[in-house]
Automatic annotation (TrEMBL):
Pfam families: ALAD. This is Delta-aminolevulinic acid dehydratase. The keyword Lyase applies. The active site is at residues 197, 251. Belongs to the ALAD family. PROSITE patterns: D_ALA_DEHYDRATASE. It comes from Aerophobetes bacterium. Homooctamer. It catalyses: 2 5-aminolevulinate = porphobilinogen + 2 H2O + H(+).
Length: 329
């Protein structure tokens, strides 16, 4: 039959498909998140996240070295804080010799060319699991929290961290942290702002289980974004840009591709996405039941993130690509 256009011709073979492929996911697009345990030679599996372990810094160093050899350029760290170090104010977050600063010093010595990203927020350090300081009425006090976040960021910078990632969602924290960093001479430390971090008790729950940081009362709706409102993402993005952020992050991942796409169109800063713990759990649970193949599901997700405009992707699926199949899409 004579047809002028046969779009299938451009999909007829592997070679033609590869030639015309628009989206390529590279190891250098990936940020690997790690849950950091105190001590040495410690490894604990996270039940809702099969294949992901909480690790002590020495074991993170050896895993990160393998990842770096395969082309991964950055990892980020989340601390599993000993409950005896938690208090109402998250004081331990400012400790220059705390878990994160110690691990940063160690990792920068072992793997100087790997970028280390540290999370700035109080939830792993507070007894109530909120990201800031609580007023008597239970409200998370913005300006009191900023003081703690600045001190926390400085303790990471003194340890030699490359990139500071505030994930707390307080107003004005990018400016406060930028000013504090510059005042101490850390003008080269980047700020990667969690710009549009949507509230998601479901999709953050494996993370909170791993860190034992589930809020003991209330929820995070007064600071994390409302999933039913898109315009706050624009407001947050333009504020972060004016406050001196170097990179923006959208979170969670697949349910927020529209937000990623829109924010990417509205800024000239690099924009990343966080494919969060609950998204990893969903895929792995289905994989373990034989309902789908995790590698295929992760590959499709990563392509979708790049198609929507992501410049970088935080994902726990890094293992799958680097060890299981040794391939990248
Ligand atoms: C907290 C923080 C959270 C995540 C990263 N930083 C959870 C929360 O806000 O309760 C979630 C990451 C994930 O689920 O993978 N500041």
């Amino acid at each position: 039959m004579h047809l002028l256009s046969r779009p299938r011709r451009n999909r007829k073979s592997e070679s033609v498909r590869n030639l015309l492929q628009e989206i390529h996911v590279q190891p250098s697009d990936i940020v690997a998140p790690f849950y950091l345990l105190p001590g040495a030679n410690k490894k604990e599996e996270i039940a809702p996240m099969p294949g992901i372990f909480k690790l002590s810094m020495d074991l993170i160093a050896s895993e990160a070295e393998n990842l770096h050899k395969k082309g991964i350029q950055a990892i980020c760290l989340f601390p599993v804080t000993d409950p005896s170090y938690k208090d109402l104010y998250g004081t331990e977050a400012m400790n220059d010799n705390g878990l994160i600063p110690s691990a940063v010093r160690f990792l920068k010595k072992e793997l100087p060319s790997l970028a280390i990203i540290s999370d700035v927020a109080l939830d792993p350090y507070t007894t109530h699991g909120h990201d800031g300081i609580i007023d008597e009425d239970g409200y998370v006090n913005n300006d009191k929290s900023l003081r703690m976040l600045k001190a926390q960021a400085l303790s990471h910078a003194r340890a030699g961290v490359d990139i500071i990632a505030p994930s707390d969602m307080m107003d004005g924290r990018v400016f406060a942290i930028r000013k504090a960093l510059d005042k101490e001479g850390f003008t080269q430390v980047n700020i990667l702002s969690y710009t549009a971090k949507y509230t998601s008790p479901a999709l953050y729950s494996p993370f909170r289980a791993a860190l034992n940081s589930t809020p003991s009362f209330g929820d995070k709706k007064s600071y994390q974004l409302n999933p039913s409102v898109v315009k706050d993402a624009y407001i947050e993005a333009s504020q972060d840009e004016h406050e001196g952020a170097d990179m923006l992050l959208i979170k969670p991942g697949l349910p927020y591709l529209d937000v990623l796409y829109r924010v990417k169109q509205s800024t000239s800063l690099p924009v990343g996405i966080f494919h969060v713990s609950g998204e990893y759990s969903m895929v792995m649970a289905a994989h373990q039941k034989g309902y789908l193949n995790a590698h295929e599901a992760f590959e499709e997700a990563l392509i979708a993130f790049k198609r929507a405009g992501a410049d970088f992707i935080f994902t726990y699926s890094f293992n799958y690509f680097l060890y299981e199949k040794h391939t990248f899409c």
